[in-house]
Amino acid sequence: MSDDCIFCSIVAGEIPSRTVYEDDDVSAFLDANPLAPGHTLVIPKAHHEHVQDVPNDLASDVFSVMHRLVEPAESAVDADGSTVAFNNGEAAGQEVPHVHGHIVPRFDDDGGGPIHSIFGARPDLDDDELDDIAASVSDGADD
Ligand code: AMP
Ligand code: ZN
């Protein structure tokens, strides 16, 4: 548990939440300032800031709970789909420094865009740059 972490406080029962799922390692609750009805957050109970900080087994558990909750979150509000995403790091808009996955129900007429709409102009990368990036990511995945 981290002091001054609002999600750790929720896990500890110190502040209220509309919890929709809980087990020994993972908790899920409604977002207090929802982007859509049914907006749900899924967190590891242990405090980790970024996706890459979460141990493998726990990361699997978090994804498993997200997988389990997508259909009920959509059905609860009769949604047509959902955006399932992590804001990972301040640069990506992460405001709460305790890793959390968003399940945001989506509707045909909600006026929101795809995740692609977050970004502006796309980078113009030549083949050498793409090869270098691919090699670097691939090497990192082997570590
Ligand atoms: P992010 O920008 O990815 O860090 O998202 C943080 C999310 O946490 C926002 O959607 C907030 O509305 C939500 N949030 C902040 N405080 C609480 C809280 N006490 N209970 C539930 N959701 C919260
Ligand atoms: Zn925390």
Short overview:
By secondary structure, the chain is of the alpha+beta class. Helix content is 30%, strand content 17%.
Overview of this protein structure:
- By secondary structure, this protein is of the alpha+beta class.
- It has one domain: HIT-like (HIT family, subunit A, 2-Layer Sandwich), CATH 3.30.428.10.
- It is built from three helices and five strands; from the N terminus they run αβββαββα.
- It has helices spanning about 5-10, 55-75, 125-140, and strands at about 20, 25-30, 40-45, 80-85, 100-105.
- It has a five-stranded antiparallel sheet with strand order 1-2-3-5-4, covered by helices on one side.
- It is globular, with a radius of gyration of 17 Å.
- The two termini are about 30 Å apart.
- Bound molecules: adenosine monophosphate (AMP) and zinc ion.
- The site of zinc ion has 6 residues, from α1.
Catalogue the unreliable spans: none
The helix/strand class is: alpha+beta
Might you state the CATH topology name? HIT family, subunit A
Main sheet strand line-up? 1-2-3-5-4
Mean pLDDT: 97
**Which small-molecule ligands are present, each listed once?**
adenosine monophosphate, zinc ion
The CATH C-level name is: Alpha Beta
The CATH H-level homologous superfamily: HIT-like
Rounded to an integer, what's the Rg over CA atoms?
A: 17 Å
Shape type: globular
How many angstroms separate the termini?
A: 28 Å
Helices, by number, come to: 3
